[in-house]
Design a protein that fits this description.
Elements lengths: L9 H9 L3 H17 L2 H7 L18 H5 L1 E4 L9 E4 L16 H6 L9 H30 L2
Helix pairs in contact: 1-6, 2-6
Length: about 150
């Protein structure tokens, strides 16, 4: 899902970033994106549904609260033209190690043939999108200052 935001001063910040070495500019942008994504994390965790029944890994019944605890801010796969961050339940299958992981989060968010979608991540995004945009602008400005100072 892609959204456009109108944050005051972001165009000037972008022009300042282009004046720096591309590697430093990308590093600053990644840090600012991560800070903005972290504004969503508490909201996503608070909206995540909690399974109330008994845990039974053999039948697929999760440990209560496993989905809430499994949310993380992760870096997205980089390419030459794109990079970014995301809020997810796990980065890859290696992290699904046992009964206390939230591998089923995508089914709860998007639904399936037999599961009604609940859209808790999307609701959290919509609730915090303006705060995240403001955090992005603030962090981007501080990253530009840090790069300009040479630290």
């Amino acid at each position: 899902m892609t959204r456009m935001y109108d944050v005051q001063g972001l165009e000037q910040l972008s022009k300042k970033l282009l004046a720096f070495e591309p590697k430093l500019a990308k590093k600053g942008i990644r840090r600012a994106q991560r800070a903005a994504a972290k504004t969503f994390l508490p909201e996503v965790r608070s909206r995540a549904p909690v399974y109330e029944g008994p845990a039974n890994p053999k039948t697929g019944r999760p440990v209560p609260g496993a989905l809430r605890r499994s949310h993380r801010v992760r870096a997205m796969k980089r390419s030459r033209s794109r990079f970014g961050v995301k809020v997810t339940t796990a980065a890859d299958a290696k992290e699904f190690s046992g009964e206390d992981d939230g591998f089923y989060g995508r089914w709860i968010e998007l639904g399936s043939k037999s599961i009604t979608p609940r859209g808790y991540i999307r609701a959290a995004f919509e609730a915090k999108e303006q705060a995240a945009a403001e955090t992005l602008a603030k962090e981007l400005a501080s990253e530009i200052d840090a790069i300009a100072r040479g630290s």
